[in-house]
């Protein structure tokens, strides 16, 4: 068996693993990364990028249709083949040459194969040819193996060959009828995309649509999906699934209803990729999410084992995983060099924002952009809050953006500290507005000072002024 030594070994070359390795190399250490599929991970080939490419053309078409003059110039329907073609290019045609060259240019060694922890600081990589290489880490092993789609135990479901988010994101054609089990982010975005591409879509949303978002956001998205012809069944649960000889999928619901479709997408959350990575060799539980401290060190992991990204379940989003990667990479370098680790709140090596300042955009129609706590989450956290609402459609910039602009904004204020702790925007093209709220929350900018942050006229950002005026000075 070949044996090699590096300062740091990272298992998983998704966006998070890549960034951890880059950070430690920039800090002067050596790093190897282990990948069993494509360098770039879920995000590049089956998640963020291809799904947003599936959604973007429809969103541009909707925007044009909301404007007199532009509307008249747009006469046909969405060209599904062209959309799928553009999606293919955003998934780099499921080839990772580009990302591999980047690894080379960054000075990161790539080992292809399944990585498994063999003992403390030792990772064995088994390639497709069955050959195993032993990698020893002088300082740290970082697990960045991500997550996979969770399949519920519904009788007949597995045999019916359901789509997971992977098959939806990489679909080669548009099914005539698509049933979706789940009502979260994947379900909502894929219902929006496939309805626009021409599928007849039926959503079985047991717990509602976007149940963890502000209720107004869920309502606006549900209403708009229905306007787009999607059948959204709230509170409905699948009891059994069967694909017949003709390939048609039949779903029976718990309350006795029946749904027929050509494909069924299951989107009910994720499970960690920790089943076969050797956790049992170091006293941890295979298949479990990896609990970490604020510097992403695995609890019970001997001090040399770290976990970043989806696999630690803190936040299942690319940008937040990359934020963790910067913190963990720098913490490993600091510890290796005997430098001080700044692990206090908002310290350089602590992923503090994971707790209270996570931005997310759901690319539905309308877009939902949020950061921090919803009103319900703030109350659960025991904060004394005031909720400030504003009709986004009445802001001058929004009414210029699109005729009949429909949207809503909510600011959640911590009354004891007089700072913003949550912000949600629902409306066309609100995605780019959320970073201002992220800065206000992370910076804990007092409301008194926010009055001096003047939004340009006539932009949609003027909603900030309207929210402050509604709150009062
Ligand atoms: C449909 C969908 C859309 C999404 N859209 C967005 C979005 O718009 N914005 C956003 O921020 N987030 C989005 N996400 C979430 C985002 O994809 C994840 O948060 C992100 O990919 C996590 O990155 P990661 O590096 O932790 O894991 P992954 O991207 O899952 O990468 C992990 C890598 O590790 C490899 N691996 C696993 N086990 C081993 C092993 N034992 N040995 C070797 N290699 C291994 C895998 O092959 C994979 O390449 C979306 C998710 C889904 C499902
Ligand atoms: N634009 C984005 O940022 C984006 C897009 C897609 C996915 N993602 C991330 O990927 C992750 C996975 O997305 P997801 O939509 O699979 O998960 P999710 O957690 O967003 O939603 C899953 C939904 O399924 C429901 N559910 C759970 N078990 C069920 C069951 N047995 N039957 C029916 N419904 C059930 C839940 O109540 C929840 O509403 C999320 O954490 C999300 O943040 C992000």
From TrEMBL:
<dbReference type="GO" id="GO:0006103">
    <property type="term" value="P:2-oxoglutarate metabolic process"/>
</dbReference>
<feature type="binding site">
    <location>
        <begin position="182"/>
        <end position="189"/>
    </location>
    <ligand>
        <name>NAD(+)</name>
    </ligand>
</feature>
<keyword id="KW-0274">FAD</keyword>
<dbReference type="InterPro" id="IPR016156">
    <property type="entry name" value="FAD/NAD-linked_Rdtase_dimer_sf"/>
</dbReference>
<dbReference type="InterPro" id="IPR001100">
    <property type="entry name" value="Pyr_nuc-diS_OxRdtase"/>
</dbReference>
<dbReference type="Pfam" id="PF02852">
    <property type="entry name" value="Pyr_redox_dim"/>
</dbReference>
<dbReference type="InterPro" id="IPR050151">
    <property type="entry name" value="Class-I_Pyr_Nuc-Dis_Oxidored"/>
</dbReference>
<keyword id="KW-0547">Nucleotide-binding</keyword>
<dbReference type="GO" id="GO:0004148">
    <property type="term" value="F:dihydrolipoyl dehydrogenase (NADH) activity"/>
</dbReference>
<feature type="disulfide bond" description="Redox-active">
    <location>
        <begin position="43"/>
        <end position="48"/>
    </location>
</feature>
<keyword id="KW-0520">NAD</keyword>
<feature type="binding site">
    <location>
        <position position="115"/>
    </location>
    <ligand>
        <name>FAD</name>
    </ligand>
</feature>
<dbReference type="InterPro" id="IPR036188">
    <property type="entry name" value="FAD/NAD-bd_sf"/>
</dbReference>
<feature type="domain" description="FAD/NAD(P)-binding">
    <location>
        <begin position="6"/>
        <end position="322"/>
    </location>
</feature>
<dbReference type="Pfam" id="PF07992">
    <property type="entry name" value="Pyr_redox_2"/>
</dbReference>
<comment type="similarity">
    <text>Belongs to the class-I pyridine nucleotide-disulfide oxidoreductase family.</text>
</comment>
<feature type="domain" description="Pyridine nucleotide-disulphide oxidoreductase dimerisation">
    <location>
        <begin position="358"/>
        <end position="464"/>
    </location>
</feature>
<feature type="binding site">
    <location>
        <begin position="145"/>
        <end position="147"/>
    </location>
    <ligand>
        <name>FAD</name>
    </ligand>
</feature>
<dbReference type="InterPro" id="IPR023753">
    <property type="entry name" value="FAD/NAD-binding_dom"/>
</dbReference>
<protein>
    <submittedName>
        <fullName>Oxidoreductase</fullName>
    </submittedName>
</protein>
<feature type="binding site">
    <location>
        <position position="52"/>
    </location>
    <ligand>
        <name>FAD</name>
    </ligand>
</feature>
<dbReference type="GO" id="GO:0050660">
    <property type="term" value="F:flavin adenine dinucleotide binding"/>
</dbReference>
<feature type="binding site">
    <location>
        <position position="269"/>
    </location>
    <ligand>
        <name>NAD(+)</name>
    </ligand>
</feature>
<feature type="binding site">
    <location>
        <position position="310"/>
    </location>
    <ligand>
        <name>FAD</name>
    </ligand>
</feature>
<keyword id="KW-0285">Flavoprotein</keyword>
<dbReference type="InterPro" id="IPR004099">
    <property type="entry name" value="Pyr_nucl-diS_OxRdtase_dimer"/>
</dbReference>
